[in-house]
Amino acid sequence: MPGALQQAREAPVDVITIGGNAIAAGTMTLGDLIQYIFFTGLMAAPIVQIASIGTQITEAFAGLDRIRELLDTTREDAADDILLNEIIWRSVRGADSPMPAPVRAAFYKTHTKDDGEK
Predict the structure, then answer these.
(1) In a structure prediction context, what are the per-residue pLDDT tens digits for the chain, which is 118 residues long?
(2) CA Rg, the chain, in Å?
(3) pLDDT at 3
(4) Which position among 17, 63, 80, 109 has the lowest Cβ density within 10 Å, counted as fewest Cβ atoms?
(5) What's the DSSP call for residue 100?
(6) What share of the chain is helix, strand, coil (3-state, %, to 5)?
(7) Residue 23 lies in a domain
(8) Does residue 103 lie within any of the structural domains?
């Protein structure tokens, strides 16, 4: 694989060198060379994006495995809620942002005698 990586690094230099020689020989204009480089970039950009999507998917699965190690997800509400909130907070706000203290609240409905009677 290092050979392919080296060729990818040298390709722009080769294009400019060969294009410069063609311009000097009069077989190509400067506009033709610029147009060729521009359209080659338009064709290569989607391929690079597809490759980066594969990398992102791999990183996402690694993160999912790490979350599964930290949290018990075998049943509902078994995970530590503070740890889960911290993971969500840091993924949204950034790894270095301080998480505020949790606020606990409960909602309940009081029953009166009239609720159950018809």
Answers:
(1) 556 666 667 778 888 889 889 999 999 999 998 998 888 888 888 888 888 888 889 988 988 888 777 777 677 767 777 888 888 888 888 888 888 887 777 777 777 776 555 5
(2) 30
(3) 65
(4) 109
(5) P
(6) 70, 0, 30
(7) yes
(8) no
CB 86 within 8 A of CB 99: yes
In a domain, 78, yes or no: yes
Structure tokens at 88: 């969500």
Structure-token pair, residue 68: 């599964």
Number of structural domains, the chain?
1
Contact of 113 with 105, CB cutoff 8 Å = no
Number of Cβ atoms within 10 Å of the Cβ of 42 = 9
Side chain identity, residue 111: H
Map residue 78 onto helix, strand or coil: coil
In a domain, 35, yes or no: yes
Which DSSP string do the residues of 4-35 spell out, in sequence order? HHHHHHHHHHHHHHHHHHHHHHTSS-HHHHHH
